[in-house]
Amino acid sequence: MEAVLNRILGELQHVNQKLENIDNRLDKVEQRMDKLGQRMDTLEGRMDKLEQRVDILEVGQKELHQMVHAIRNNQLESRAVIDSVQYDIADMKGGLKTLCENMVTKKDLRFYDMKIGEHDREIFTMKQQ
Question: pTM for this structure?
Answer without folding.
Answer: 0.48
